[in-house]
Design a protein that fits this description.
With 478 residues, the chain is an alpha/beta fold. The protein folds into two domains: 7-250 and 451-472, 3-Layer(aba) Sandwich (Aldehyde Dehydrogenase, Chain A, domain 1); 254-441, Aldehyde Dehydrogenase, Chain A, domain 2. Helices cover 40% and strands 23% of the residues. The protein contains 14 helices and 24 strands. It has helices at residues 41-60, 63-79, 81-92, 96-116, 155-167, 180-192, 207-216, 229-242, 264-276, 293-309, 328-343, 394-402, 417-426, 459-464, and strands at residues 7-9, 12-14, 21-25, 32-37, 123-126, 133-140, 143-147, 171-174, 200-203, 220-226, 245-249, 254-258, 286-292, 347-350, 354-355, 361-362, 365-368, 385-391, 406-407, 409-413, 431-434, 449-450, 453-454, 467-474. It has a seven-stranded mixed β-sheet, sandwiched between helices. It has a six-stranded mixed β-sheet with strand order 9-8-7-10-11-23, sandwiched between helices. Helix 3 (81-92) packs antiparallel against helix 6 and helix 7 (207-216) packs parallel to helix 8 (229-242). The structure holds nicotinamide-adenine-dinucleotide (NAD). Nicotinamide-adenine-dinucleotide binds next to helix 7 and helix 8. The site of nicotinamide-adenine-dinucleotide has 22 residues, from helix 7 and helix 8.
Length: 478
């Protein structure tokens, strides 16, 4: 059932020219799913050359025809949603229902980009002289690269593939070595849809070696990275050395402000869905809960009772509500964060420990009365741990929410329109959800401020990320 793993270079599947590789592990069972070949420098150079050739074909392909191929790939992804979702759950861990949604939303994203690529409009600026035409033309930036993580193995690659290809760029993508099968399936959909060879290339390898080689190549004009802040800063330095444009989708530490005018139990139920989706391994996950003193006890009690009742298990099992963490590193990180918080005085209201001896399972965890200096209040947990804190004043809670160097997603719950507007204005964040957690759609911009990165994916901004503006000033005669 699992994908046959390979690199995709110049329209062909290959095991690469070296013998390097790694095993892909099922996080629910710790069993090996298959061997992933790594690209050698020679393979990467082939991918670069093939992307350069692919770009020459693709940039000259009319946007209308590009849209048809991308749309066809979306249809193939949707038609294969069940098998792609099964691969996704097997290699990443999230429950099958979530994997199905991810795959179908990925098809939506491709469709949206297919359509939007036909609207890469320029503009005409009135000339200074009679009959002068001043035109701004949007052109593809050129060969681009993408580096994607393991938490959304379909959706994150598709955001970058969709934007690049709709704009007329060729792309080399290095998807996560820990969850490669899903991206293999997505790339195959493009092959089946008739994408010309070289327009989309897929490689795997040692992340630092691959990214450094690709970003430094004069063939590549832009790259997009989704992952951790330290790696993002490292890649931004390399980008500066080579004057490469970059989109950086990095981590966050999403504050959730629950005001005293809400039904605390209802909000706790919504919070549990948002918090434990993908076992909390979501860059826009709600991660710091600031709850008004008047509703705090009711909120924490309900949140904890839902967490305690959740069925944790293999994501392929029908009744599982939360799967394993994607890798052993995350379980260790949860143990350290929870241990530190408890040592500093936090109370464990639910969970707080690893589950079982096999697979990377960690219990849905609610921490109450977490002190400000606990690491979990300062470092992104990226896991199923929800620290809760009391607040009394609007100004105080906004200060708390904004005080970290991140700004990806922030949330607030209130029934007052006045407060909703005030808090949305006050939060330093790329995305703000008021009374819900759904801030990621194909047609809306997704991106952070402060150390959470720069640039956007999704929305018209996501297409613009792969375009350059050319100004043409034209007089009628020489
Ligand atoms: P990590 O920092 O080692 O890696 C993060 C991602 O970057 C991985 O996909 C990895 O393969 C890739 N990567 C690492 N070095 C790279 C390089 N030099 N060039 C290109 N890609 C490189 O951490 P990790 O243990 O995989 O994940 C832990 C942390 O990463 C989490 O705590 C979270 O903050 C962050 N993360 C964020 C996102 C996101 O959606 N923004 C996704 C995954 C992980």
């Amino acid at each position: 059932m699992y994908e046959k793993l390979a690199l995709f270079i110049n329209g062909e599947w290959t095991n690469g020219s070296g013998r390097g590789g790694e095993d892909v592990i099922n996080p629910a069972t710790e069993a090996s799913l298959g061997r992933l070949p790594h690209a050698t420098v020679k393979d990467l150079d082939r991918a670069l050359e093939s992307a350069a050739k692919g770009y020459e074909i693709w940039r000259k392909t009319p946007a209308y025809d590009r849209a048809r191929i991308i749309k066809k790939a979306a249809d193939i992804v949707r038609a294969n949603a069940e098998s792609i979702a099964t691969t996704l759950t097997t290699e990443q861990g999230k429950v099958l229902a979530e994997a199905r949604i991810e795959v179908n939303v990925s098809a939506d994203i491709l469709e949206w980009y297919a359509e939007e690529g036909r609207r890469a409009y320029g503009r005409i600026i009135p000339g200074r002289m009679p009959n002068q035409r001043q035109m701004v033309v949007k052109e593809p930036i050129g060969v681009s690269a993408a580096f994607t993580p393991w938490n959304f193995p379909a959706l994150t690659p598709v955001r970058k593939i969709g934007g690049a290809l709709a704009a007329g760029c060729a792309l080399i993508i290095k998807a996560s070595e820990e969850t490669p099968g899903t991206c293999v399936a997505v790339v195959r959909a493009f092959q089946e849809a008739g994408l010309p060879p070289g327009v989309l290339n897929l490689v795997f390898g040692v992340p630092a070696e691959v990214s450094e080689h690709i970003i430094a190549s004069p063939i590549v004009r832009k790259f997009s990275f989704t992952g951790s802040i330290p790696v993002g800063k490292h890649l931004a330095r390399i980008a500066a050395d080579h004057m490469k444009r970059a989109t950086m989708e990095l981590g966050g530490h999403g504050p959730v402000i629950v005001f005293d005018d809400v039904d605390a139990e209802k909000v706790a139920a919504v919070a549990a869905v948002g918090k434990f989706r993908n076992a909390g391994q979501v860059c826009i996950s709600p991660t710091r809960f600031f709850v008004h003193d008047k509703v705090y006890d009711r909120f924490v009690e309900k949140f904890a009772s839902i967490a305690k009742g959740m069925k944790v298990g293999n994501g392929l099992d029908k009744d599982t509500q939360m799967g394993p963490m994607a890798n052993a590193r995350r379980v260790e990180a949860m143990e350290k964060l929870v241990g530190d918080a408890v040592q500093r005085g936090a109370k464990v209201a639910a969970g707080g420990q690893r589950l079982g001896n096999q697979g990377y399972f960690y219990a849905p965890t609610i921490l109450a009365d977490v002190p400000d200096d606990a690491r979990v209040m300062n470092d992104e947990p990226f896991g199923p741990v929800a620290p809760c804190v009391r607040f009394k004043e609007f100004g105080e809670v906004v200060h708390q929410a904004n005080k970290l160097p991140f700004g990806l997603a922030a949330y607030a719950f209130t029934n007052s329109t006045e407060r909703a507007t005030a808090v949305a204005d006050a939060l330093e964040s790329g995305m703000v959800g008021v009374n819900h957690f759904g801030v990621s759609l194909p047609e809306t911009p997704f991106g952070g401020v402060k150390e959470s990165g720069y640039g956007h994916e999704g929305g018209i901004e996501g297409l613009d990320a792969y375009l350059v503006s050319k100004f043409v000033s034209q007089l009628p005669t020489a």
